[in-house]
Amino acid sequence: MKRILIVEDDRSIANLQRDYLELSGYGVRIVSSGREGLAALKEEAFDLVILDIMLPGMDGFEVLKTIREHELLPVLLVSARGEELYKIKGLGLGADDYITKPFSSGELVARVHAHLQKFERMKERYGNGAVQALPRLQIRGLEIEKEARMVLVNGQEVSLTQKEFDLLLFLFQHPGRVFGKEELFERIWGMDAMGDISTVTVHIARIREKIEENPSKPQYIGTVWGAGYKFLT
Asked: What is residue 2's DSSP assignment?
């Protein structure tokens, strides 16, 4: 049985989360402060942590920093603060997901299940020790596991072709910089590659279809008319 630690100072919310998780077959422990959460992680093994940000004394960001110094398990941040700044900070500190209150218990269970599955896949491929060493890039719900060549959007794995992955990774690693189609073609396909630079446009469109919530209004790969493409910061 997978064990879930809930760190939440609102007992009614925590109890509701526990009830739905237990109905889904998970074992659950609830604590009401960050320090209690860290102590619980030392006392027993958990498979995933659901961590509220607004906690008494030690807030969720501080707890997350400490967890990431010692633990590999998935951490899902929850908060009533939906501002992008909070999400960026949480994901930047190593959170695997950020859920804004109020949310349905069904959504929470689905996200818990997805992240546990993802973590198990990583352990199967690389072993427990290797998971920590895998470079992970993330911003606004988009995660790129470089060595595993995995892309996830809001915790859900998406399937990219080799060139789609290479193109997305290249733009991600140069945020805000505009690249023309010719340069992208040379960088990703190689100077001696056979083909037409229009393939860059096709690949960008395919990537957007897979990672953007609304491909016509992209939040990750933007078009600079007459110049090329850039990763949006």
From this structure: -
Strands 75-79 and 48-52: parallel
Model confidence, pTM = 0.58
* Collapsed DSSP state (helix, strand, coil) of residue 57: coil
Do the Cβ atoms of 67 and 49 come closer than 8 Å?
A: yes
- The torsion angles phi and psi of 96, rounded to 5 degrees, stand at -90, -20
Q: How far is residue 187 from each of residues 154, 159, 184, measured CA to CA in Å?
A: 28, 22, 5
Q: Domain spanning 159-231: which CATH class is it, in words?
A: mainly alpha
Query: Do the Cβ atoms of 181 and 194 come closer than 8 Å?
Result: no
Name the β-bridge partners of 51. Answer: 7, 77
Considering the domain 3-132, what is its CATH architecture?
A: 3-Layer(aba) Sandwich (3.40)
Domain boundaries, the chain: 3-132, 159-231
Q: Residue 10 — very low, low, confident or very high, per pLDDT cuts 50/70/90?
A: very high
Over the stretch 182-205, which tens digit does the pLDDT of each residue have?
Answer: 888 888 877 555 557 788 999 999
Handedness of CA 156, 216, 80, 102 (dihedral sign): negative
φ and ψ of 80, to 5 deg: -80, -10
The two three-digit tokens of residue 198, written as one number: 């229009």
First vs last Cα of the chain: how many Å apart? 40
